[in-house]
Amino acid sequence: MPLIRRHRDEIAAFQARRRGRPSLHSLVVEEIRPLTDDAVLVAFTVPDHLREAYRFKHGQHVTVVHRTDAGELRRSYSICAPAGSGGLRVAIRRVPGGAFSGYATEQLRVGDTLAVLTPTGRFTTELDAAAAKHYVAIAGGSGITPILSMTVTILEGEPQSRVTLLYANRSPSSTMFLDELEALRDVHGARLSVCHHWSREAPAGEAGPRRLGPDSVRDLLERCPPVDEWIMCGPLGLVQGIAATLEEHGVDQNTIHQELFTAAGVDDLTNGHDRPLVHSEVTLRMDGEDSTLTLSSRGVSVLAAALPLRPDLPYSCSDGICATCRVKVVEGQVEMDRCSALDRAEIRQGYVLACQAHPISERVLLDFDA
């Protein structure tokens, strides 16, 4: 890499990290490995001068950017490597009609270069090497990717803790990381329990298929040792159903960590047509530079309106589930369409998601540096 470009990358990464924002860099694909018929593992080479920028916590994700003649595609993928391993790996499952997932699973090759945002996300746990906890991890399909990183990191970082994993898929052939999980059981023994739930095929020794849901959790609560922390990732129905069951059983909400891998089914917080019509002067502040635009409360989101003016703004999913575009409301008021990526404390502090935000006051100041 030319020295000038390397120096520019280091400066950009340092400035973004200092402000708590991700930065975008080009990384070379070093490995592509099939996981199932429709999913691959993709590993990236992280150059030495960017290793600190790409250091991640277990459960975090990266945004992969693919530029084509038709425009730019951005997709968020959870990191499936354990924290501290030095590896940067994601798993990509092909989605019917998916522009990027189709490219990644069929055309991407070792040696290709993709732009990758540095890791973000708050779906993680605090580690304590002296802790002796019981974690229950729940994964549905592709939800295994952050759960795998969290499981391995916990087992390695808390030698006295144990993990019970409930993992839902259609069948063994559609199960990502099936062999890796078996190998982990061999390494960690009784500290890792893996219970597969295959909806179309019976697990060994059972009469029929097994579905993962609230009944599975009720059974676990009755027969297993007390659970200290719950971590789960999967489709909305699975995660919400299990979260409701835990609430019914009096589980402390502070011990439940959850993430969705799609916004499908997430209810909107508001109906945009019900908002009072306001034409607002919206100022965006990033890297100490202000940009101002006029935006209607019933128009497109702040992010969508701002990108032509500030294409360097951080964003990824545009669906309100990844929080890459988190910004603080310094002045005025905004309203979000939906939000499953911010916790109550962040919302109380004035943070919103630019991809879901609409101004509802005549003046708004949003600070990406805050």
Automatic annotation (TrEMBL):
<dbReference type="InterPro" id="IPR039261">
    <property type="entry name" value="FNR_nucleotide-bd"/>
</dbReference>
<dbReference type="InterPro" id="IPR012675">
    <property type="entry name" value="Beta-grasp_dom_sf"/>
</dbReference>
<dbReference type="InterPro" id="IPR036010">
    <property type="entry name" value="2Fe-2S_ferredoxin-like_sf"/>
</dbReference>
<dbReference type="GO" id="GO:0050660">
    <property type="term" value="F:flavin adenine dinucleotide binding"/>
</dbReference>
<dbReference type="GO" id="GO:0051537">
    <property type="term" value="F:2 iron, 2 sulfur cluster binding"/>
</dbReference>
<dbReference type="Pfam" id="PF00111">
    <property type="entry name" value="Fer2"/>
</dbReference>
<keyword id="KW-0479">Metal-binding</keyword>
<dbReference type="InterPro" id="IPR017938">
    <property type="entry name" value="Riboflavin_synthase-like_b-brl"/>
</dbReference>
<dbReference type="InterPro" id="IPR017927">
    <property type="entry name" value="FAD-bd_FR_type"/>
</dbReference>
<dbReference type="Pfam" id="PF00970">
    <property type="entry name" value="FAD_binding_6"/>
</dbReference>
<dbReference type="InterPro" id="IPR001433">
    <property type="entry name" value="OxRdtase_FAD/NAD-bd"/>
</dbReference>
<protein>
    <submittedName>
        <fullName>2Fe-2S iron-sulfur cluster binding domain-containing protein</fullName>
    </submittedName>
</protein>
<keyword id="KW-0408">Iron</keyword>
<keyword id="KW-0285">Flavoprotein</keyword>
<dbReference type="InterPro" id="IPR008333">
    <property type="entry name" value="Cbr1-like_FAD-bd_dom"/>
</dbReference>
<dbReference type="InterPro" id="IPR001041">
    <property type="entry name" value="2Fe-2S_ferredoxin-type"/>
</dbReference>
<dbReference type="GO" id="GO:0046872">
    <property type="term" value="F:metal ion binding"/>
</dbReference>
<dbReference type="InterPro" id="IPR050415">
    <property type="entry name" value="MRET"/>
</dbReference>
<dbReference type="GO" id="GO:0016491">
    <property type="term" value="F:oxidoreductase activity"/>
</dbReference>
<dbReference type="Pfam" id="PF00175">
    <property type="entry name" value="NAD_binding_1"/>
</dbReference>
<feature type="domain" description="FAD-binding FR-type">
    <location>
        <begin position="22"/>
        <end position="126"/>
    </location>
</feature>
<keyword id="KW-0411">Iron-sulfur</keyword>
<feature type="domain" description="2Fe-2S ferredoxin-type">
    <location>
        <begin position="280"/>
        <end position="370"/>
    </location>
</feature>
<keyword id="KW-0274">FAD</keyword>
<keyword id="KW-0001">2Fe-2S</keyword>
<dbReference type="InterPro" id="IPR006058">
    <property type="entry name" value="2Fe2S_fd_BS"/>
</dbReference>
<keyword id="KW-0560">Oxidoreductase</keyword>
